Amino acid sequence: MATIKRIALLTSGGDAPGMNAAIRAVVLTAAACRIEVIGFEHGYIGLLEQEYRTLLPQHVHNIIQRGGTILKSARCPALQTPEGPKLAADNLQQLNIDALIVIGGDGSFRGALEIARYYDGQIIGVPGTIDNDVDGTTNTIGYATAIDTALDAIDKIRDTADAFERIFLVELMGRHSGYISLAAGIAGGAEQIICPEFSQITPKDLRQITTPIQHAQLLMGKASYIIVVAENSYPGGTTALAEALTKAIGIECRACILGHIQRGGSPVGADRILATKLGAYAVEALQQGAHLQMAGEVHGEVTLYPLAKTGDRTKAIDPYLVRWQQQVGSY
Ligand SMILES: Nc1ncnc2c1ncn2[C@@H]1O[C@H](COP(=O)(O)OP(=O)(O)OP(=O)(O)O)[C@@H](O)[C@H]1O
Ligand SMILES: O=P(O)(O)OC[C@H]1O[C@](O)(CO)[C@@H](O)[C@@H]1O
Cβ < 6 Å from ligand 2: which residues? Predict the structure, then answer.
């Protein structure tokens, strides 16, 4: 059992609904174990600039339902400079921090690994990102809420698309991963889903998209038609794709870019529960000596996974749903 007296905590990268629930779980679990918690603000920026405060149970009261993160988040290019990681480690050491908990995505974990080269204490990650692109955990904190937010938007767009018998392209986030697009597209009954894991669409070959549209029109006549497009799927973006499709089929295609709406909002129950479980487990695992691990959940069980491997391979999106969507969903 490692003797941990002082833990530091930060949220980094894109904020995700449920980060506050994870902060709460860390603080309450640590308090129960008589461990002090220091919260760095604005991700790694706060760690480099020594912007921190003590977090007590009363500071995390009534935050479990709040989106965003009370610690704020940021992307921090300064950590990626040659001197950044050492300065971060020096600051942790100077404050007598025995262990650091980083809530973020695989980029944040890469940052943590850099700090670990100079830091004597323990480091553990908690996966918090809407993208669900972190290996070693079935779901990341924030993903379930992002699906529901995207789904709500798709349902609303369907209403107007249906009334006008229009074709809509709805762009969803995910950076280079199609998790949100596949899940929200399936749940929203999208006629087509375009995401990096399916196939590459090029301006020279739009037939993969236009053929199913023409087929649907033969079958159903004019009707609403929704294409969910993961961001970064087409050169020039989804608006450019809508314009190219309009030209190719002679029917106006409209683009709707959902954007950062997907990062906000009150976390759904599944995210609050996952965040509570992983935040608490991170503290317990540190006390048992865990270092350079991520606290994840696989098959409902908490698990540790090497931080260094979390971004190694692309976590595969559900092959069963991929096959169904490609063979049946766009029929
Ligand atoms: N190779 C690296 N070396 C040092 N720091 C890094 C490295 N990669 C990422 N970081 C740090 O982690 C921060 C967050 O990374 P990134 O922007 O990739 O987000 P993320 O944690 O993957 O979350 P999300 O993808 O949800 O936004 C970066 O701004 C940077 O400070
Ligand atoms: O808010 P920013 O820095 O533009 O980042 C947007 C990116 O962050 C995410 O929301 C979370 O990683 C991605 O889905 C998206 O590509």
Answer: 14, 75, 105, 129-131, 173-175, 231, 263
Q: Which residues are catalytic?
A: 131
Residue of the CA atom closest to atom 10 of ligand 1: 111
pLDDT of residue 70 exceeding 90, the answer is yes
Edge to edge, the sheet with strand 293-298 lists 52-55, 36-40, 6-11, 99-104, 122-127, 293-298, 301-306
Cβ atoms of residues 43 and 76 within 8 Å: yes
Alpha carbon 168 to its chain centroid, in Å, reads 25
- Flag whether the ipTM exceeds 0.95: yes
Query: C-alpha 6: how far from its chain's center?
Result: 28
User: Tens digits of per-residue pLDDT, 292-301?
Assistant: 999 999 999 9
Decide: pTM greater than 0.95.
yes
Q: Which residues are CB-neighbours of 308 under 8 A, at least 6 positions away?
A: 113, 292
Structural domains in the chain, CATH included, are: 6-142+267-309 (3.40.50.450), 145-263 (3.40.50.460)
Ligand 2 mutation pick, 140, 175, 310, max ligand atoms within 8 A of CB = 175
| Residue nearest atom 8 in ligand 2 by C-alpha distance | 14
Q: Which protein residue's CA is at the shortest distance from atom 7 of ligand 2?
A: 175
**DSSP per-residue letters across 131-190:** T---TTSSS-BTHHHHHHHHHHHHHHHHHHHHHHT-EEEEEE--TT--HHHHHHHHHTT-
User: Average of pLDDT values for 77-86?
Assistant: 98
Q: Are 101 and 148 in contact (CB under 8 A)?
A: no
The C-alpha atoms of residue 169 and residue 283 are separated, in whole angstroms, by 43
Q: Where are the beta strands (DSSP E) in 5-46?
A: 6-11, 36-40
- How far away, in angstroms, is 75 Cα from ligand 1 center? 6
97 is written with which tokens? 């921090």
